[in-house]
Amino acid sequence: MTWNEAQIEKGPVPIWFQIANVLRSAISAGEFKEGDKLPSEGELNTAFGVSRTTARSALDKLENEGLIVRQSGRGSIVVPSKVDQPLNILSGFAEDMRRRNIEPGYRTLFTGFAKPEEDVLRALELRRGEQTFKTRRLLLADGKPIGVATSWIPAAIMEGASPPDAAYLDTGSFYAWLAESCGIILSGGREYIEAASLDAETARLLEVTPSHPTLVARRLSRDQRNRPVEYAVNSYRSDRYRYWIDLEA
C-alpha cells in the first residue's frame, strides 16, 4: 500500500496527525528516500480531502521531528536519518555505527605526539611538560560527514608500542588499538554534552556553515584501574546525530 492509499479516519486522533503518521511510515518503508520530495500541500489536499492548514500541520510535525526540511521552491525534502547514541554505553564510533547497520568511515586529519593544552593536562591528570598522543579524525556515516573527533592519550601509557598511523586509523578502531597494543580496556568515563558554535575549519569538514547547530561531547575515559586514559572532544552535526537515555522513576 502506498502513502496515498492509506485510510484516514474521523475520530479523536487529529487528521493532520494521521497524515503525518502515514508519511512517516512511508519514509521508514523506503517509499521516500533521502533527498526525495514529499507530496506538496496541494497533493495532500487532493489525496485526503483536507485543507491546506491541515496538510501544512502534518508537514510541520515531520519537520519538527527532523525528518524533512522545507525549502523554498523545492518543497519538503527527506533528510538523512539521525544516528541515536545511548548515553549509558561507552563504545567506539565504528562499533556504534555497525550496531545500526551504518557503514562507518574515517579520514585521519592528524596523528602524532603533541604538547597538550591546559584543559587536556587537567583532564588526564598530567604534569606540565608531559606529552600526549593526539589524533583528529573526520567521522563518516555511509560515506557522509557526521562528526570530527579529537582524542588525546598520555604518551606514557603507550610503553614503547608503535603508534597507529593514518592508514590504520582510516580503517581501524582506536579503542581496538589501545586494547591490542597497550593492553588497555576502557571501563567507564564521564561525558559532557552541550551546544556549541563551529570554527571555520570544522564547519568546512562537516560541510555546514559555522552557525549550523552542533553538539559537542567532551569525554574522559578511564581504564580498569581507574586511570584517566583518553580525553576526547567530538563535534557532531545535530541534524545527523543525537543522544538518548532511558529514565526510571
Automatic annotation (TrEMBL):
Domain of life per record: Bacteria
Keywords: DNA-binding, Transcription, Transcription regulation
InterPro entries, alphabetized: Bact_HTH_transcr_reg, Chorismate_lyase_/UTRA_dom_sf, Tscrpt_reg_HTH_GntR, UTRA, WH-like_DNA-bd_sf, WH_DNA-bd_sf
Pfam families: GntR, UTRA
Gene3D superfamilies: Chorismate lyase-like, Winged helix-like DNA-binding domain superfamily/Winged helix DNA-binding domain
HTH gntR-type domain mapped to chain residues: 13-81
Protein name: GntR family transcriptional regulator
